[in-house]
Amino acid sequence: MVLKHSGANKVTIWVITGLMAVLTMFFNLFIFLMSLRSYKQNKHWTPCETIITALSLANGAHQLLCYLWMTMTEIDKDCRLEELFYSLMILTVFSLKFTIMWTTSFLTFYYSTKLVIEPIHCYTKIQEAILKHVTTVVLVIPMCGLSTCLPMLTVLVPENNTSENKDCGSIMPNDTPGMIYNTVYLVLSNILPGVLMVKCCISISVHLGIHLQHMKASTNGSHAPKLGSEMRVIRMTLALVVVFLCFMVVDLYAYYQVTVKKENAILLSFLFTSIYTTFSALVLIYGKKTFWKVLLHSYNVGLEEFPCLSCLKVPETKCKPSSAHTVKH
Fold this sequence. Notes:
mainly alpha; two-stranded antiparallel ribbon; 10 helices
């Protein structure tokens, strides 16, 4: 079923995106503030905290620009502002999307290097070189995103629809160069980071299976093996990959509508990305035990103001101490 850009559908997408925007901003602001508190306490960030902080900033900036563009197109239905202004906003949104995808992929790669030791000497050296320059990589990713998206203004053309269905500043492929660029951007922003994340997911899964076998063998099956904080990191990483793959499927559908069906699916793309940034931020909070405990406590404290909602409280259970191997993250 193809979603046409009728006025009712556009307003519906705008409202749903607004709800996602509130959640996205809340979760990512929470991550950012918790990271700042960690920095004040420890006077430095771990590589993981550096990546997560950069990701939360990219998520927040993307959501703000995305919703601002959608709001302005609803208000300025006649597109009285310059088309270039709207097009630059869209370019920045897609640049931030590129940054989000690759930063998430880099975070997954980081955790895989902490959990899995590769026997290949050359591969290990590459990992060490990258991890020594985490801050540099985090800064290079948005610059790569911007340089990748700049050609949009030349190879893509403004959408030529009726005023009823027109989205201000929408740029779509109209010829062979535009189609080629659209495909290249899709590969660079979605498929390549997705391949890297799947590779890391497979490595972590294999490591988990081998580790569990070794632990069962060492305990002779007398009790179930425990992985402590390592299991939380593994669950978070695998959940990030699953959320990303679900997003990639629906985002490919949006690109199909643009490239093959010649439909303007930019609103769908923005909606899908908003949903993705919401759930991925929640997964990131879960992955950091201190973040998760503070979020649950704040949630329960908030519900105490409304006695009728006390049934919605979440138990704040403490994990039992374990001598199992832990991962510092």
